[in-house]
Structure formats: structure tokens, C-alpha cells
# Entry
Amino acid sequence: MTALHRAYADGPFGQIHFQSAAEGVPLVLLHQAVMHSDQFSNVFAPLIAHGLRPIAIDMPGFGMSDATAHVPGIADFAQVVLPVLDALGIDRAVVGGHHTGSLVATETAVRHPDRVRGLVMGGTMVMPDAQRLAMRDSFAEREKKFGPLPGGQHMVELFATRERFAAGTVDLARISEYVTQALVARGPYWYGHHAAFDYDHVAAIRALAVPAMILSNSGDMIHEAAVAAHALRPDIPLVTLPGGGIDIVDQAPQAWADAIADFVATLP
# Structure
């Protein structure tokens, strides 16, 4: 793994923790729930090799970033991007994310097209509203129950879930890091997925006015939503990596970085 410089910027909800490479084409990376910026540790090196400058942000309440004082939405999470760019003296950047982070990246592009050179949506939330809102409520009901159990059983259960998702494609040390990333959250455990399923990604995708790409993989549990997003906006290319799952940035880091670099190379 390649270590980046760690720093803080002041934001609307307190301090924002982020990691940044020293030079290259600025590329903001926004993580999925329930993780933080270290989700992208294995793609930093291949991105840098392509001349990109990864800037990975801990969204509010995740990692070392301060949480909101209220139940946040995707629009709240998106408010941390510009303060980080401003702190680094960056006028425009490519902004991308994975799963929940993809929604945050989209909202940033819709709200601030003058600051977003291009958008990478690593997963989308394109599905019928009734299905999306039902998932919001079911996730919240289940995740609100997450908390310390005798013998650390809550950590064991979380490890077992992530190990099942990885299906033997991610080593145990990295899965252990997934667990610690989830447990370091500064906000309630359920905030991230609740915000994701509460977000109208369809409306946001329709409103996009910046160059964009949809980056998915055939083994992702939400791959069909990526296909639906491309059908919604056929002008936005869909790049599908083979296999993998929700941990594609660890399962195929080089291919993931290559796809983003190819997209950036097309931007004016």
C-alpha cells in the first residue's frame, strides 16, 4: 500500500480528514459506507503511476472526520469536497466514488459543475423509488441494532459478513481492516446506508451536465443498477470490469485504476 499525506480541512460540520498525493491530475475519491478513505489504499499506487493525484476524503462521521449533528443526507456528505479542494488550492478536479461515495460524487457534480472536471460513478442507485425506500428502512432497522456484544461478537459477525462478500478473493488481513474501518466511525453506524437509499440518484443523473462515466463490475450486487443508469443516460459510458464484488478496488486495483485513467484522458 502507498501512504499519502494526511491532513485536515475545516468544513461545515467540523474537521474533515483526508489523504492526498503530492502531484498529478486531481482525483477526489469518496468511499462507500461503512468504511473510510483507506478503502482506496490499494489503488493509490496505480492511480499515481497514471499521473493522477488521488485525494481520498473521510466523509462526515466516518474515519477521522467529524460527524453531523443531525441525520445526514448525501447532500450533507457532498459539502466536504469543496473545503478540501480549497485547502489544497485546487480549482477543479475529477470527482469519483464507490457505492455511497458515488452518490456523493454525483451530488457534488450537480451542485458544483464549475469545480468538477469529470465524474466517476462507481456504482449507482437507479431503481424504483418504492424498492429504494423500502431498502432504506430495512437497512436502518437492521443497522440501528448494531453495537457491542459480549466477547466482541459484533466484530465477529461483521467479519463473517465481509468474508462472505469477498468469497475468498480478499485476504483475511484486509478483511480485518474492513472491520476496523467500520468500527472507527464517529457517527451512528446506520447513517451511511440510510443516506444512500434516501437519495434520488435518478434525478441527479438526469441533471448531470459534466463529463461522466459509470464504472461497475459484473459481480457487484448493484451491477444491474449501473446498467439501468446507462439506459437512463446512454450518453454516459458504462465500463464493466469482470467478476469481483463490492470490494472491486481490492480485487482488481490495476484494472479499476486503468479504467479511471482512460476516462480522465478523454477529458478536455
Summary: The longest strand covers residues 5-11.
